[in-house]
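Appendix B. Extra example for self-study. Work through it before the problem class; the solution is given directly after the inputs so you can check yourself.
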Amino acid sequence: MNGVAASPGAGAGSVFILHERTVPLGRTGPSSPSDGDAAERVHLRKSAESELERFRRGVDVAAAYYRGLVERVRESVGNEEAEIFEGHLEILGGEDVAEYVAEAVLEKEAIAERAVVDFAEETAKEFEALESEYFRQRAGDIRDIGRRLAEAIYYGSIADPTDLPESSVVVAEELTPSATARLDTSRVVAIATEKGGRTSHAAILARSLSIPCVTGVVGLLAAVRGGQTVLVDGDAGTVSTDVDTAVLEDVRVRSARQREEAEAQIRWSREHPAQLRDGTPVHLAANVSGADEARLAAQVGAHGSGLLRSEFIFMRYSDFPTVEQQTNEYRAVCEALAPHPVVVRLLDCGADKPLPYARQAPEDNPFLGERGIRYLRNREVQLKAQVEAIDRVAREGHDIRLMIPMVVSREEIDVVRTYLDGSNLPVGIMVETPASVLTLKRLSDRVDFVSIGTNDLVQYTLAVDRGNAAVSDLYRELHPAVIAAIDQVVEDAHNAGIHVGVCGDMASHAASALALLALGVDELSASTSAIPDIKAALARVDKNALTSLGAALRAAATADESRSAANALALVKE
Amino acid sequence: MIEKTLEVLNEEGLHTRPANEFVKTVKQFQAETTLTKGDVTVPGKSLLKIMKLGIVTGDEIRISCDGPDEEAAFAALRAVVQPGENGS
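Solution. Structure tokens for the complete assembly:
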């Protein structure tokens, strides 16, 4: 079966079919049929007594599941580990949960699922505040217990994707970012999905974790069954079910070698600055999703972060994080990358990145709908909180900057600025809509920097849905229209004296990254795992070669021509 | 009532597993048991509240048992937090 080669390398293992079961949580407070959540079939509260009964039944279901788990673990791992799950069983049936739920149900009119998840989150936060590393780590256990219990209440059963066997090939229709975040990736040898293209979130995450991945495999779910051995080739973009031992051995050798090479490259990358062969320095930053990834970025020698995807931080919470919580998160990222700058992109949810707790009415056309700054403008409380948190970190003396996603007009910048009266926090915009490209001259006096978000810019410029496998070959990063757009952004920004970064996927591939520099961008922000590759590619070219590439790109009549020119310079094979 | 301060000698402190063992032990007796670390006192049968104390090896904790079988309860609990130590 063929799909899109989304993350390089090959992996073979047993198919694990991942069904993400989302539990609609409603809000704390009375649910009503006019609720936005109704579209997700949120359970409607009848009475406090019925909610308590649902909770009790959920506890019974979850307890039965945990008892089974204790037995399985006792046999497969050992007594000590099994006793840890006995502890989870004890917590699940303990009075602390029951008392909290009773109060939330009786006094806040919560539904049982919401009460359970809120309890887990509050408790997890208390653990995170403890001194001992071991106890801080228990926060994850508590959240896990809460999620399983909520699932048991809503569905009457538990099917847990985190219970993943070793060497699994995760197969799914589509991997949402939150589902991927829940996977025990140490057990994942490869990922294959039926939907999605090269830049879907499963692909981006797989690349940042160096897990081979093929997306957009039509008919995948019908063709494989759980437990079957399959081979995912992330270089060729294929998934094969017919694998013999010789092939498997070959894959094992290949992946072991790739791992060794990757480790050597990371060391090299940390020790060498990003610069061209002639010594011209290049500003090369990393795209990160939180403090953990920021530490990895620092390890490969990233010059700060040109894109902190704050929505990934939000996804780790069960409700909008408070100003305090956000301040702590952003500060941790800044500390990991100090003294280099960190650019925080305001919450960019909606479209392909829904937040479980953010209510949004279903949209016919989510990519043209309420996403990015549009979403935040309709929820000014959240906008204000996030701007305030970023500003606080700036006032503490960290080099942090704010970036607004999905800008099409000046008012969207002004509304953010109203919360920054008297602050020196640098404010920039993502240039990802044709509107912002065409009117940058009229926006540039309101911004301190711009960053080109190539994924959306390419999809909006070429009118191609990057997640639709049927048209994903029309998604061409070096299409003449895209080159013209980037060229114009660079010219207009430089005329206005502002800095141009690129934080899209294009900055993460050697050939495209060189093309961007050839077009005059000042900064690249690439995925952490791509940084060693990009640094190596930079070290092979000099300034004159980039100037010639720039001329070739501007003159190219087709995407193929510009791609050939860029690949030739980056020594990438066609 | 019996109430004594002990140093936690269990090498894992009161991690999930030993803390659950503590709770299971408390539940075997009729005595009302509380556990105190610093100025926070929690009921001996709440695993979660005990874990939230974040008790590690070397911490001083205070165990209080009150009921008809308090002596036996205390001895059993002491064996959990000070495994291998006999008598007082």
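Self-check: Chain A touches chain B through 22 residues (CB under 8 Å). If your reasoning did not lead you there, revisit section 3.
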